[in-house]
Design a protein that fits this description.
The chain is an alpha/beta fold and 279 residues long. It has ten helices and seven strands. Helix content is 51%, strand content 15%. The strands form two sheets. The protein has a five-stranded mixed sheet with strand order 5-4-3-6-7, covered by helices on one side.
């Protein structure tokens, strides 16, 4: 009996990589289908829908995190990593990538390589680290023939010079970025002066077919009156390990990073700035 049970257990655990991947994909597809169905059922109850969404997100995240931890050497790990990488803290992601031995090719290879570069940048720019400088060919306007006029602007032109600085990485095509602008405007109007200021850095403009002109126009529409750098492209976000925007970083007067990311979103922004200013 014991031998039979042991053999049955061995058979149960001896799944092929293809079987494991099929089961993983089936779970995720079924979960998402059920999630959408239930959310539709709750569409008239906003509070219940929000509570369900939060609970479902946590369950989805935990399942995929567990799948990642158990499958660092096969295709399930690759797919699970795609689902959870943006929800892992840099330190946690670094540990996962150190142990990650799953064979990757093509786009997956580029994805994992990009993650490794990103986590290295993130660990170099966590709270408590000094700022990492960058330079951007900012467009100040156009000449008589309509060609852009460039001026090199650096983060160090603003940060590390005795003021607390809030730096907002954004793009003109990004709705969540625009949603944060009233919060940024509020703290700028409330605190800017000798001790505090704001800088908006436009990144990834070209990723949605836009350019510096769209940034200038959008900034004007949304009433951005504070410091700006447009035409940022890839480098500023890459240097700070930013995977999604909006992403804000709060620098102390000496250029040390004092807060970043979700700690500065929405209603959390004003208290964070106030604390950095000692108010």
């Amino acid at each position: 009996m014991a031998a039979a049970a042991t053999m049955a257990l061995a058979c149960k655990e001896s799944k092929t990589p293809e079987q494991k991947l099929a089961e993983f994909n089936e779970w995720n597809e079924t979960f998402i289908e059920n999630y959408r169905t239930r959310l539709t059922e709750l569409q008239d109850d906003e509070e219940a829908a929000e509570a369900f969404a939060d609970s479902a997100f946590n369950a989805y995240l935990e399942y995929n995190k567990a799948a990642l931890r158990k499958n660092l050497d096969n295709a399930v790990g690759v797919e699970a990593l795609k689902q959870v990488y943006s929800d892992l803290e840099p330190e946690e992601l670094a540990k996962v990538l150190d142990k990650f031995t799953a064979p990757v090719t093509g786009r997956d290879s580029a994805f994992v390589a990009s993650l490794k570069e990103n986590v290295t940048a993130s660990l170099a720019t966590v709270v408590g680290k000094p700022f990492t400088d960058f330079a951007v060919e900012h467009v100040t306007g156009t000449d008589e023939e309509g060609n852009p006029v460039y001026e090199t602007r650096r983060l160090s032109d603003y940060v590390g010079k005795g003021k607390v600085f809030l730096v907002d990485f954004w793009s003109p095509w990004c709705p969540p970025c625009k949603a944060e602008l009233p919060n940024i405007k509020s703290v700028w109007e409330k605190y800017h002066g000798d001790d505090f200021d704001v800088l908006s850095v436009a990144v990834w403009e070209e990723s949605r077919g836009m350019n510096w002109r769209n940034t200038v126009d959008t900034a004007a529409v949304y009433g951005i009156q504070w410091n700006q750098i447009n035409n940022g492209h890839q480098e500023p976000a890459a240097l700070y390990g930013i995977q999604g925007i909006p992403h804000m970083v709060l620098f102390g007067a000496d250029g040390t990073i004092v807060a970043r990311g979700d700690a500065l979103r929405g209603a959390s922004l004003d208290p964070a700035v106030s604390a950095a200013l000692g108010k």
